[in-house]
Amino acid sequence: MNPDGSSPFKGGPSRKRRQAYSVAAITLEAAANVAESSDILAPLKAACRTTKLILDNMQAVDNNQEGWADLTQRMEGYMLAIENQIESFAKYPPEDREVNEAFSRPLTDYVDFLEESHRNITNQRHKRKRSGLNELTEVSKVMLDADTIRKFNRDIEDQHRKFIDALSLFTAYRIQAVERDNKAILANVDNSAILQLPMVAFVASSVHTTCLQGTRQAVLKTISHWAGDDTSHTPIFWLCDIAGSGKSTVAMSTAAIWKAEGTLGGQFFFSMADSEASTTEKFCPTMARELADHMPELAPHITEAVTQHPAIMRTSLCQQFRTFITGPIRNRKKRVIFVIDAVDECKAGRKRKELLEALATATRESTNLKIFITSRPDPAIETVLQPLSIKRKLEKMEDRLHDVDHFDNTDDIAVYVDQLLHGVLSEDNRQRLVKKADGLFIWASTACRMLTSETRWSSPEDIYNRLISVEQPGVIDDVYDLLLERTDPEGRLTTREILALLLAAFEPLTVGDLDDLLKHTKIGGSAEALIRNLGSVVTRDETNLIHFRHPTFVEYLKRRSTSPVVDSHSNFHINVGNAHGQIASWCFQRLKSRKDGLKFNICQIESSFYLNSQIPDLDARISKFIPTALRYVSYHWLFHVAETDDNWRRILENDIRHVIQIPYVLNWIEILSITGGIPRLIRGLRSVSRHTGVSGLSG
């Protein structure tokens, strides 16, 4: 284009000019009705059409040919510039050519000016045709033409300049929009690579909460001082205490504080009740996704690490942490804090030690990295952490957190009990309950839930009396015994069987899936009824998953599953082996379901040659086409078969043979492949192969 308005042609009308007219006429005629008023092409095409009409009229003017010829050249240059813009903008998608009032006003003003100019020149032509001109008139008319030409030149130059300025502004705006789009595309590429990383689905907030207002202030102050001290030589803070002392609640509070400050890199809450959250298999990729979420500026560095190390998940935990975490945070000057709760609930002692060694190595390699860890007392943890010179500080925190003689602990539980039981128990009874808790928060919180439950079978006074009458203060098993004794006598057996199913499940079940399982096993009852009656120890999160509230209840149920069966309500017993068999039977029923079971190309992917990483909406397809129950049974049926007894394995023999035949086996492996479950499949096969009674799967 020619923003200065100069003509691309020299001299009078030429062959090139005539060709330009022809091209312009053909182009405008073909596209005259295409663009709408909101499209940038509309005013451009209108301006070009009107300019051509003006040029046609100017060609017919007889007087002052030299002046009109110069103006014609200028108009031709303007028209060619507009044609070039039309050709350029026509390549834009329609949505990118939309203009608002601020952009379109100078363009439409220019078109209005050209139309007015066209009318004036047409009038000049008609006047000339109607009146004969003598020699004197010819001279005066040439002077008049010169004035008209000068004014028209001045006006059109001014209007064209505004026109070009508006186009330049629109072009600059589109360039900025393209740059933003490019950044968004790059960000999506980053997100796509990061979202391919496997992640533990367990959500800490579904089970744990932050500290009640006004409690744990001394502990939180000490931790906050450690976090803010950049000169400290103790980058790892280990909060160590017995089960039920409130460590996870403190961890939730510290994570919330650091998130608000912008220093939280990520959090991982181990849980013995979840198959994924009780191992380190997905620890590092989960933390990498957490880091990208909390500190988006590090996402490109995490993406680079992922793309440069496609086989990173096959390396050691230490190498994974170095690649996913240590490397990216070197690009940040400020501190980064990670929260790792309940390390002792990582089931494999060897993996637990490997994790601690990886964390210790990372803090030595990164001066801006700090790690907050909670666990029960564990010699393996202490052995690894002791060289980091933090034992003294941790011992001090141990004493402050669970020293029953320290005023913090008793006062914090008193605040908690007073807030929850005000109006339920008298002040004297609340104080006795605090004393009975013996500094154990889980004892106090479970007791409070029992006393405030809307579905309790006894009055608060009766429940209080039973709580106070337990022999040993602070023994959580006594509270759980009392809780289960108070359930509806007619539904006590059903409660036992449902709890056995939940304990046997390798990950939390949804309310709907548990109800389907209960229907299949003919146990009776419902998930809703269980949550209503055992809300003190069982909860449902916002995604409808059912969780045990605390690992101490999981441990309580495990102990009750190994006790001999005694027909007494005070000796609660559950049969977990039988529950595994029941769930395995349900798994086969779900796998073979014609409606919601296995099927070919279940996610409706266009080609089987695509890698998972090449399918941008894979997660959305998985959520849409693979029900939660089908994902669960695909991942875990092998383990349920392995964990049940020989009698159940004989019962399930035909189902096993059926599922491992084509096409079922291929469709099953397809689900595992697109959901990242192949490692789980391999471990399941190894687990089942240990049982010689499993026909078709054992070696």
Category by helix and strand content? mainly alpha
Order of strands, main sheet, comes to: 1-4-3-2
Global mean pLDDT: 79
- Contiguous low-pLDDT stretches (5 residues minimum) are 1-37, 133-140, 391-400, 565-569
User: What gyration radius follows from the Cα positions, in whole Å?
Assistant: 39 Å
Count every beta strand, where a strand is a DSSP E run of 2 or more residues.
Answer: 6
Helix content: 55-70%
Protein described:
This protein has a 4-stranded parallel beta sheet with strand order 1-4-3-2, with helices on both faces. Strands 5-6 form a two-stranded antiparallel sheet. Helix 11 links the parallel strand 3 (about 335-340) and strand 4. The radius of gyration is 39 Å and the shape is elongated. Helices cover about 60% and strands about 5% of the residues. The protein is mostly helical and about 700 residues long.
Features:
single chain; 699 residues; mainly alpha; Rossmann fold; 4 domains; 4-stranded parallel beta sheet; two-stranded antiparallel ribbon; 29 helices; 6 strands; 4% strand
Quick gist of this model?
Keywords: Repeat. The chain has 29 helices and 6 strands. It has helices at 15-31, 41-59, 65-89, 101-130, 135-195, 217-228, 247-261, 283-294, 299-308, 317-329, 349-365, 379-385, 391-402, 407-421, 427-437, 441-452, 460-469, 476-485, 492-504, 511-521, 527-533, 551-561, 576-591, 618-625, 628-643, 646-651, 653-659, 664-674, 678-689, and strands spanning 236-240, 264-269, 336-341, 369-375, 538-540, 546-548.
Provide the fold topology.
Elements: H1 15-31, H2 41-59, H3 65-89, H4 101-130, H5 135-195, H6 217-228, E1 236-240, H7 247-261, E2 264-269, H8 283-294, H9 299-308, H10 317-329, E3 336-341, H11 349-365, E4 369-375, H12 379-385, H13 391-402, H14 407-421, H15 427-437, H16 441-452, H17 460-469, H18 476-485, H19 492-504, H20 511-521, H21 527-533, E5 538-540, E6 546-548, H22 551-561, H23 576-591, H24 618-625, H25 628-643, H26 646-651, H27 653-659, H28 664-674, H29 678-689
Parallel strand pairs: 1-4, 2-3, 3-4
Antiparallel strand pairs: 5-6
Helix pairs in contact: 1-2, 2-3, 2-4, 3-5, 4-5, 5-9, 8-10, 9-10, 10-11, 11-12, 14-15, 14-16, 15-16, 16-17, 16-18, 19-23, 23-25, 25-29
Protein name: Related to S. pombe trp-asp repeat containing protein
Domain Nephrocystin 3-like N-terminal: 215-376
Keywords: Repeat
